TrEMBL record:
It comes from Hoeflea alexandrii. PANTHER family: ATP SYNTHASE SUBUNIT B, ATP SYNTHASE SUBUNIT B', CHLOROPLASTIC. NCBIfam families: ATP_synt_b, PRK09173.1. Its main location: membrane. This is ATP synthase subunit b. The gene is atpF.
Length: 159
C-alpha cells in the first residue's frame, strides 16, 4: 500500500474525528451566531440611519424656521430704520425751519430797532437843530407867544 492510500485513510479518520467532535455543528453554530450578530448590527445601523435622517430633517426644518425668523427680523429692522430715518429727516427739517423763522424774526426785530433808533436820533437832531434855529431867530417875546400857542394847542388836543 502506498502513501496515497494511507493519506486517504488518515483523511477519513480526521474527518470522522471532526464529525464525532461535532466540529461542523460548532462551525455552523458559530457562523449562525455571527450571521445573527451581523443581522442585528444591520438592523441597528438601519435604525441609526433612520434616526439620523429624522434628526437631519428636524435640523433642516429648524434652520428654515431660523432663516425665516431672521428674514422677518431683518425686514422689521429695515422698516424701523426707515421710519427712524424719515422721522429724523422730518424733525431736522422742522428744526431748520423753526431756526430759520427765529433768525428771520430776530432780523426783522433788529431792523425795526435800527429804524426806531435812526428815527429817534433824527428826531433828537431835528429838535436840537430846531432849538438852535428857533433860539437864533426868535426873541423872548415871540418865544412866549409860541409857548402860549403850543400850550393852548396841547390843551385842545387833551380834551
Amino acid at each position: 500500500m502506498d502513501a496515497t492510500f494511507w493519506a486517504l485513510v488518515g483523511l477519513l479518520i480526521f474527518i470522522g474525528i471532526i464529525a464525532y467532535a461535532k466540529v461542523p455543528g460548532m462551525i455552523s453554530g458559530a457562523l449562525d451566531k455571527r450571521a445573527d450578530q451581523i443581522r442585528n448590527e444591520l438592523e441597528e445601523a438601519k435604525k441609526l440611519r433612520e434616526e439620523a435622517q429624522q434628526l437631519l430633517a428636524e435640523y433642516q426644518r429648524k434652520r428654515k424656521e431660523a432663516e425665516s425668523e431672521a428674514e422677518s427680523i431683518l425686514s422689521a429692522a429695515e422698516r424701523e430704520a426707515s421710519a427712524l430715518r424719515e422721522d429724523a429727516k422730518a424733525k431736522t427739517e422742522e428744526y431748520v425751519s423753526r431756526r430759520t423763522a427765529m433768525a428771520e424774526q430776530k432780523i426783522r426785530q433788529a431792523e425795526a430797532d435800527a429804524i426806531n433808533e435812526v428815527r429817534a436820533s433824527a428826531v433828537d437832531l431835528a429838535i436840537v437843530a430846531a432849538e438852535k434855529l428857533i433860539a437864533s431867530k426868535v426873541d423872548s417875546k415871540a418865544s412866549g407867544e409860541l409857548f402860549k400857542a403850543s400850550l393852548g394847542e396841547l390843551k385842545a388836543r387833551l380834551n
